[in-house]
Design a protein that fits this description.
The complex is a heterodimer. Chain A has five helices and five strands. By secondary structure, chain A is of the alpha+beta class. Chain A has one domain. A five-stranded antiparallel beta sheet of chain A has the order 3-2-1-5-4. The longest helix of chain A has 31 residues. Chain B is mainly beta. Chain B folds into two domains: 479 residues, 7 Propeller (Methylamine Dehydrogenase, Chain H), CATH 2.130.10.10; 126 residues, Sandwich (Immunoglobulin-like). In chain B, strands 6, 7, 8, 9, 10, 11, 12, 13, 14, 18 and 19 form an eleven-stranded mixed beta sheet that branches. Chain B has a six-stranded mixed beta sheet with strand order 42-41-44-45-39-46, with no helix packed on it. In chain B, strands 36, 37, 38, 40 and 43 form a five-stranded mixed beta sheet that branches. The radius of gyration of chain B is 27 Å and the shape is globular. The N and C termini of chain B lie far apart (84 Å). The chains are: A alpha+beta, B mainly beta.
């Protein structure tokens, strides 16, 4: 046991943590309003979009249809892709941990940062489309001061007022596991340097 | 005769004088004590501490209030049709009001009582009796809707009802009026010895379903009120009686002659033994049992065809009579089960019997004769104590769990607090006016929550803004947590409030149902999605499978209906969101609207009498586009060959 470097163990743990995304959501969007003291909410998983409570998705769709927003999709191409990406990266991470080369840990770290950013960008694009592609026959068309049609894009992160709703978009438990995994891989890299007697980390 | 008349007038003016003074004092109380306002104030958005289920009296319904605010939350339709909720109007709930006399759209609701476990209110169900056409209803306290109504055969004036034993083994229902049993054509003057009174024991199953287990065929007295024993006296039920004279005319005089009437002590555990031993006779009967099935969301009626009868003369130890002055009304058992309080409504004192003494007297055979084979226990050998001169016209007693009893006095219009065991009067407070029942949450169980007491009055006169000759009914809230009772609040009630039941809010609030799950809806005409909406014809019957969701009906354009058709609107509310009911009403339909909760299906019938294009619309302001929630049915002449068609947005 003595001869297994801590960096290796940390990297192994880092590679496993993102698998939590299969049992918990990545992101939540909550919609509160005077009529919804108990907010409506949706959870974004890597495999699906679900309501926080039974009926929430139907109720969000009902609210949204008045301003012409599309229904929340039951299926998206991402749901087919993301599970493979997460499993693939974990397998690679495990392999890297066994190979025990700290440069590989750093590679994994940057790869996941890149994949995460791409995922966020994809999420943003979906939100943009969800908030901007409005049915021209919508019952309610609100204009801003300049006479432009209001759009209803939910925030990527944080809270925003959209008509009578206060929309709050925040990472969910799965995202914290993912972030912890990424950070641990970075830590594994530093630890590896220390174990090799190097003191000046370079990114 | 003239002399009697004068003394009645004199007594009348004396009483009027007393209540008049009381009124003045009461008003000062309310205006001066600013603190009282804070004690009943429930700030906007805050919730009350207690639920109170107050009988709607001759409205036939049960009203749900919050205490201490006295705010009305809901009127639960029970024995009367309610067009607001389509109860008794829609096809699903019409069977709830079936009886052996046919459809009876009204009753007189009297005594709510909640289910108990180990003598403590458990919040599963509330039972209430219909007095006029004898029935017992069970209300589900998850949905706050009537689940079941059971007609009571061989009963008339179902008044000593619906009281629940301490593990909800039975709900008891006693007859107020004795009648020929079985009913037959006979001279009224032959009442004595020929009329009978029945006491019914209704078994309650684990799922709440009621079933008449047996009836005890009693002498032709009037059985007025009842309460089950608890603790040591669990297994017994006590019924007050009047008209032991067995008079049949000018009852106000002729049934008030005996110095003492009886409290009948019934040993139902003994009754169970006799039933098991086969000591009963089976009697043909005809009574309706109406059950609302939550899965099909529809009620059905089945007719019961016989009842098991126990005759006390053949069943020694089943019933004893406890002599009690004078035409006792309320019959109330304290939380320990030891004391049985008989309120002789024509007397000025309260008689309290001891359960321990009763058992000893039975053991020692200390009887003072018998009536129709039922032993009468010596008064002195059963009485525990007498509360002397506490007021005039005692009616009902509840308990606070601290060893105190609270009794209402109709004639002197007050509530009197007295101590069990010492029988001393501790406090008295006026009521406005002529109080009937009172209620302390849990005050007729082993575990009262002795913070508040409400008095339910028979007369309000000048207490509120007048509304013509018919003025509101009223209850009054007292704080009983201190040594002295304090009047905090008057609040109006529906119908005439008879008895009430109450419990802490936390017992019901967490389990109160929010929606009906659509996937659990197995109504035969459910439509689970707008895409499945359709219209079918079977002869002159047209069935519309319709859905509602914010903010449209599907379908909303229907053609091919003809004059003379019988059009069934089966409307499913597809919403699965809390507090989003939809309503529907059709111009000229000879019925009420429907008010459909999320996930429910309800049906109304429309028989168009005239050609044309007729609109229907949503009656509950459901959403921002509620005013747009409407549709049309085209009605063609009888001879038309136009086929059925339906659409939503042209699809």
């Amino acid at each position: 046991m003595k001869n297994i470097p801590i960096s290796k163990v940390v990297m192994l743990l880092a590679a496993l943590l993102p698998l939590a995304l299969f049992i918990m959501p990545l992101w939540t969007i909550e919609l509160g309003a005077p009529q919804y003291p108990e907010p409506l909410g949706m959870e974004i998983w890597i495999t699906k979009i679900a309501g926080i409570k039974a009926g929430d998705l139907q109720n969000i769709n009902l609210m949204n249809h008045y301003v012409g927003m599309k229904e929340i999709p039951e299926h998206m191409a991402e749901f087919d892709l993301f599970p493979y990406v997460v499993i693939g990266l974990s397998l690679i991470g495990i392999l890297f941990a066994f190979l025990g080369k700290r440069i590989l840990y750093l590679t994994w770290f940057w790869t996941y940062i890149f994949v995460g950013m791409a995922g966020m960008y994809d999420f943003y694009r979906w939100e943009y489309d969800y908030g901007h592609s409005l049915n021209p026959k919508a019952a309610i068309k609100f204009m801003d001061e300049t006479g432009k049609l209001l759009t209803y894009q939910p925030p990527l992160f944080g809270t925003e007022h959209i008509l009578n709703f206060q929309a709050t978009s925040l990472p969910a438990m799965g995202a914290y596991f993912l972030a912890a995994g990424i950070l641990l891989s970075g830590f594994a890299y530093y630890r590896g340097r220390l174990e090799a007697g190097l003191s000046f980390p370079q990114l | 005769m003239k002399k009697t008349l004068y003394s009645i007038i004199a007594l009348g003016s004396l009483i009027a004088g007393m209540t008049g003074c009381g009124s003045h004092d009461g008003k000062n109380d309310g205006a001066l004590n600013k603190n009282n306002a804070e004690r009943v104030y429930v700030a906007p958005g805050e919730h009350d501490d207690y639920y109170a289920f107050i009988s709607g009296g001759f409205s036939g319904q049960l009203a749900v209030y919050g205490l201490p605010s006295g705010r009305l939350f809901k009127v639960i339709p029970v024995f009367s049709q309610d067009p607001e909720k389509a109860y008794g109007y829609n096809e699903e709930t019409k069977p709830m009001l079936n009886t052996s006399y046919g459809f009876v759209p009204w009753d007189d609701a009297h005594h709510p009582d909640m289910s108990q476990t180990n003598g403590v209110i458990d919040g599963r169900w509330c039972f209430i009796n219909g007095n006029n056409t004898p029935r017992i209803a069970r209300i589900d306290l998850k949905t706050f809707e009537t689940s079941e109504i059971l007609e009571i055969p061989n009963s008339a004036g179902n008044h000593s009802s619906s009281f629940v034993t301490e593990n909800t083994e039975y709900v008891v229902a006693g007859t107020r009026f004795s009648v020929p049993i079985p009913q037959r054509d006979m001279p009224i003057k032959d009442y004595k010895g020929n009329f009978k009174g029945s006491l019914s024991f209704i078994k309650v199953a684990d799922d709440g379903m009621m079933d008449i287990s047996f009836q005890i065929m009693m002498p032709g007295f009037n059985y007025d009120l009842a309460h089950p024993g608890r603790g040591a006296s669990h297994g017994w039920v006590f019924f007050s009686t009047y008209n032991t004279e067995e008079a049949n005319t000018l009852m106000e005089v002729n049934s008030s002659q005996n110095d003492k009437d009886f409290i009948a002590a019934v040993n139902w555990k003994k009754a169970e033994e006799y039933i098991k031993a086969g000591k009963f006779t089976t009697m043909p009967a005809n009574y309706a049992h109406n059950v609302y099935n939550e899965s099909t969301q529809s009620a059905t009626t089945t007719m019961g065809k016989e009842v098991r009868i126990l005759n006390p003369a053949d069943c020694p130890g089943l019933v004893y009579f406890l002599p009690t002055p004078k035409s006792p009304h309320g019959c109330d058992v304290d939380p320990s089960g030891e004391y049985i309080v008989g309120s002789g409504k024509l007397s000025a004192s309260l008689t309290v019997h001891s359960f321990t003494k009763m058992l000893a007297a039975i053991e020692g055979k200390k009887f003072d004769g018998e009536a129709y084979g039922i032993p009468i226990i010596n008064f002195d050998d059963v009485v525990a104590g007498i509360v002397e001169q506490p007021g005039l016209g005692p009616l009902h007693t509840e308990f606070d769990g601290e060893g105190n009893a609270y009794t209402t006095f109709f004639i002197s219009s007050e509530v009197v607090k007295w101590k069990l065991g010492t029988w001393e009067v501790l406090d008295r407070k006026p009521t406005y006016y002529s109080v009937g029942h009172l209620m302390i949450p849990g005050g007729n169980s082993r575990k009262p929550w002795g913070k508040y007491m409400i008095a339910m009055n028979k007369i309000t006169k000048d207490r509120y803004l007048p509304t013509g000759p018919e003025v509101c009914q009223s209850a009054q809230l007292y704080d009983i947590s201190g040594d002295k009772m304090e009047l905090l609040l008057d609040f109006p009630t529906i119908g005439e409030p008879h008895y009430a039941a109450g419990c802490p809010a936390e017992l019901l609030e967490p389990t109160s149902q929010k929606i009906y799950k659509l996937e659990d809806n197995h109504h035969p005409y459910v439509t689970r999605s707008g895409k499945d909406a359709k219209v079918t014809r079977k002869g002159n019957e047209v069935h519309i499978y319709m859905t509602t969701i914010r903010s449209h009906f599907a379908p909303d354009n229907i053609e091919g209906v003809k004059v003379g058709d019988k059009v069934y609107f089966h409307v499913t509310n597809l919403e699965q969101d809390y507090d989003v009911p939809h309503g529907v009403a059709m111009i000229g339909a000879n019925t009420s609207e429907l008010l459909i909760m999320p996930g429910q299906t309800e049906t109304f019938i429309w028989e168009p009498k005239q050609e044309g294009v007729w609109p229907f619309y949503c009656t509950d302001f459901c959403s921002a586009l509620h005013q747009e929630m409407q549709g049309y049915v085209r009605v063609s002449p009888k001879s038309s060959s136009l086929g059925l068609s339906w659409s939503l947005d042209g699809e």
